[in-house]
Design goal:
Helices cover 70% and strands 0% of the residues. The termini are far apart. The chain is globular. It has two domains: 165 residues, no CATH class; 67 residues, no CATH class. The relative contact order is 0.12. By secondary structure, the chain is mostly helical. Helix 2 runs antiparallel to helix 3, helix 3 crosses helix 4 and helix 6 runs parallel beside helix 7.
């Protein structure tokens, strides 16, 4: 039993790392955006992908039809994403991601595009990846698997603790960050109008227009704030009523 649970935990980290690769590298390259660390945590993992992949893998059997896994897996994944968005917004009073510009979205938290992608990934995970992945992991001894799972969980908990500590008073700090960015924009950019651009776009324009002003601004800001805002630009928007 311990060996199986450890294998599932290791699978969670593999899926989380794959999700980080997808969001940080593949998606930006496909859409022409800059490569960035898109995760909530500092390390190379997006836990929601690990949770989603494990849940659908445990709920559905490879013997089920492709259509059944696609629809049910997509629904389960969207429920997880919706709840995660709601919980993080309730905790930090900010919208971490927003799909209002996507077709058939639900309160900006989930959308049809995500539903289709989740459905496809559910089929791939349940039918092909998870059975193979588990068989590859479980050929190893119980003790090494337990040790690896324990080490990975310890690293994740440390990263989570650092991230939560860093994000203390997040709402106040982001308000200050946005205000400072807009003040710099007013000084540096000719004809700048507040609200016309996102904060990330403002900073990029400052960088291209006056590199010295950009560097001066960044020196005053903490690394974590810049990383989080680049990963979640929607954070600059207030919590929706």
């Amino acid at each position: 039993m311990e060996k199986y649970v450890s294998s599932l935990i290791i699978s969670f980290f593999i899926y989380g790392f794959a999700g980080w690769i997808w969001e940080s590298f593949i998606c930006p390259l496909m859409t022409g955006h800059k490569i960035k660390n898109s995760g909530f945590l500092n390390g190379p993992i997006v836990p929601i992908y690990g949770v989603g992949a494990l849940v659908v893998s445990l709920l559905f059997s490879p013997s089920e039809s492709y259509l059944s896994i696609f629809i049910e897996g997509a629904f389960v994944a969207c429920v997880i994403e919706y709840f995660t968005s709601w919980a993080m917004e309730a905790l930090y009073h900010r919208r971490w991601w927003d799909y209002d510009d996507k077709a058939f979205n639900v309160n900006g938290r989930v959308c049809l595009e995500g539903f289709l992608i989740f459905g496809l990934f559910s089929v791939i995970a349940v039918k092909f990846i998870q059975p193979t992945l588990l068989s590859m992991i479980m050929v190893h001894g119980e003790v090494p698997l337990i040790m690896l799972a324990t080490i990975l969980c310890a690293i994740l908990l440390v990263d989570l603790g650092i991230t939560i500590t860093t994000l203390a008073n997040l709402e106040k700090r982001i308000d200050e960050f946005v205000r400072d960015a807009e003040e710099y924009a007013q000084r540096v950019l000719d004809g700048f109008e507040q609200g016309k651009k996102s904060i990330i776009e403002i900073l990029e324009t400052i960088r291209l227009t006056d590199s010295s002003a950009y560097q001066e601004f960044l020196k005053q800001k903490k690394f974590a704030e810049k990383r989080i805002l680049k990963a979640f630009p929607a954070l600059t928007n207030k919590k929706k009523k």
